[in-house]
Design goal:
Strand order of the largest sheet: 1-2-3-4
Structural class: alpha+beta
Largest sheet: 4 strands, antiparallel
Order of helices and strands: EHEHHHEE
Number of helices: 4
Oligomer: single chain
Shape: elongated
Radius of gyration: 16 Å
Length: 130
């Protein structure tokens, strides 16, 4: 899967959710930061200056927000998969890269500045691992 072509990038989308494997994470909640890249041919949008040939950033943001602020999941991997599936549902989207971060993670015996997962998915039947 080639991720070097045209893409829409939304970085630093920040939400408050209740995801986590520990009970306190699910009870208290925390901030999550999502970076999203969606592969899409943007040539016609560039030529015509017409929103019909691209994706609406506001719609992408609000759909991502619904996932992050919605049903709790134990794993960041599950949250990232839901975001990826939603992004691949947009017309013209061919691949997606999703990074979900938990800033200021407390772990037994220490503190991390963040933990994160990043996944890459495509509409191909059997996409290669990136």
């Amino acid at each position: 899967m080639d991720t070097s072509g045209d893409k829409i990038i939304l970085e630093g989308m920040t939400f408050y959710g209740y995801h986590g494997a520990r009970l306190e994470e699910r009870a208290l909640g925390q901030r999550f930061v999502v970076d999203l890249e969606i592969g899409i041919d943007l040539s016609e949008a560039g030529r015509t200056d017409d929103l019909a040939y691209t994706l609406d950033y506001g719609e992408i943001y609000h759909n991502t927000k619904r996932i992050l602020e919605g049903e709790p999941h134990k794993l960041l991997e599950a949250v990232a998969e839901r975001v990826a599936r939603a992004a691949l549902g947009y017309d013209g989207a061919t691949w997606v890269r999703v990074r979900v971060r938990k800033p200021s993670v407390a772990i037994e015996g220490g503190v991390l500045s963040a933990s994160a997962v990043e996944i890459v998915r495509s509409k191909e039947a059997n996409p290669p691992r990136a």
